[in-house]
Design brief:
The chain is built from one helix and no strands. It has one domain. With 96 residues, the chain is mostly helical. The chain starts with a helix and ends in a 13-residue tail after the last helix. It is rod-shaped and about 140 Å long. Keywords: Membrane, Transmembrane, Transmembrane helix. This is DUF948 domain-containing protein.
């Protein structure tokens, strides 16, 4: 066996070892990435639940304010009608 064949076998073994180590490192990186994405998904789910819990009271308050606004406007219109009484129109002519 000459030096060229020995060098090629050595290089092939060395590259195989490096590729195996690189594959293992990629596996660990992808596993850590999956864990991080799972944590991030849990955080997003928690924030979505918090947003839904906040949305309900805000919707009720908005509806209450809207109905209160309508009832206040109706009450104000009723008070204005009492204050400013329209002149009764006659359906007949007053004859002297």
């Amino acid at each position: 066996m000459d030096y060229l064949q020995a060098a090629l076998i050595f290089l092939i073994l060395l590259l195989s070892i490096f590729l195996a180590i690189t594959g293992i490192q990629v596996f660990f990186i992808l596993r850590d990435l999956k864990k991080a994405l799972d944590r991030f998904n849990a955080i997003l789910q928690t924030s979505e639940n918090i947003a839904e819990d906040l949305e309900k009271p805000v919707a009720v308050a908005s509806k209450l304010a809207t109905t209160a606004e309508v009832s206040v406007a109706a009450g104000a219109a009723k008070v204005l009608r009492k204050i400013i009484k329209p002149k009764q129109k006659r359906f007949y002519k007053k004859v002297l």
